[in-house]
Every structure is written in structure tokens, then in C-alpha cells.
Design brief:
- The strands form 3 sheets. This protein has a 4-stranded antiparallel beta sheet with strand order 1-2-3-9.
- It is α+β, with helices and mostly antiparallel strands.
- Strand 7 and strand 8 form a beta hairpin.
- Helix content is 25%, strand content 24%.
- The protein has one domain: Mannose-Binding Protein A, Chain A, CATH 3.10.100.
Length: 158
């Protein structure tokens, strides 16, 4: 009986991790999110994807929301598509509670800082603040003013 329970626990753990991984398709510098019908940049703003090293190189930079908007405009000029800041729900969908260190799948999003990232959404209870998703804790917070500098990961609809 104990062996059967251990097998079931192992199977569920293995299966649940593969379901999460099967929601994503690696396409080089971006990742297709099948579940949410989105495309995510693999690297945090300030970093650049290296096909040779299969990782994000450089230093991720923190931006206030005005600078994030400027970076977004530059990105849309340089890479095809309509990239944008993610909604709170979209960014929360990347949280990996079982992941060590940064609470995000490092296979698809390497070198992601274990810190808060901007979303595009204002806190409806206190509109001067915006929501962020913290990849250190795996929680969301609606407590940052637009002038605060946080990390950024851009997304576009598929």
C-alpha cells in the first residue's frame, strides 16, 4: 500500500511539472505560452538572448513606468509585433511555486532576477499604485508608485 501511494505521489509530481512545461514552446529569444495565447520575451529588459550560450546575457535593469514605456516603444520598433507590459494575471501565470530561487521556470526564462516585476495594472483600491509580481516570493503586490524602479518582462498577444 505504501509503495502504491509513493508511486502515485511521484507520478502526480512528475505529471504536474510536465503539464507546466508543456504549456510553453521555446522559440529562441521568445517563448510561446500556449495556455494564455501569448508570446513572452525570454530575457528581462536589459539582457539579450544568446543562441550560442542558450542564456540571457548582460545585466537586467530596473525601470520606472515611464522608462518602461520608452523601452517598450524601442522594442516595438526593433522587433516585429506589439509588445507590452503584461497584466497582473498574465505575469502571475509564470509563477512556479516549486522552483528554487526565482519562482519562475529557468529553462524558459533563464537568469530572471528573484525580485518584483511591473505589470500594466493599477491597484483598483488605491489607483496611485500599480501591481507587481514578485518572483522571489511568488506573490503580487499593489503598492508601487510609477516612479519606483522594478524589473520588466514584455509580452505580446499571439
Amino acid at each position: 500500500m505504501i509503495k502504491k501511494q509513493l508511486f502515485i505521489c511521484f507520478f502526480l509530481l512528475f505529471f504536474s511539472n510536465n503539464v507546466f512545461a508543456s504549456n510553453f514552446i521555446d522559440k529562441g529569444y521568445y517563448v510561446i505560452d500556449l495556455k494564455n495565447k501569448l508570446e513572452w520575451l525570454k530575457c528581462t529588459t536589459g539582457q539579450q538572448w544568446s543562441d550560442n550560450k542558450q542564456e540571457c546575457l548582460g545585466t537586467a535593469v530596473k525601470l520606472d513606468l515611464k522608462s518602461a514605456e520608452e523601452a517598450n516603444n524601442l522594442l516595438n520598433e526593433q522587433i516585429e509585433g506589439e509588445w507590452r507590459l503584461p497584466s497582473r494575471k498574465e505575469l502571475e501565470s509564470l509563477i512556479c511555486k516549486k522552483c528554487e530561487g526565482a519562482k519562475i521556470n529557468k529553462t524558459f526564462f533563464p537568469n530572471t532576477p528573484a525580485e518584483p516585476f511591473w505589470t500594466s495594472q493599477r491597484n483598483w483600491w488605491s489607483p496611485k499604485f500599480f501591481w507587481s509580481v514578485n518572483f522571489f516570493t511568488g506573490h503580487s503586490y499593489g503598492r508601487f508608485v510609477p516612479e519606483k524602479e522594478l524589473f520588466v518582462r514584455f509580452v505580446k498577444d499571439r
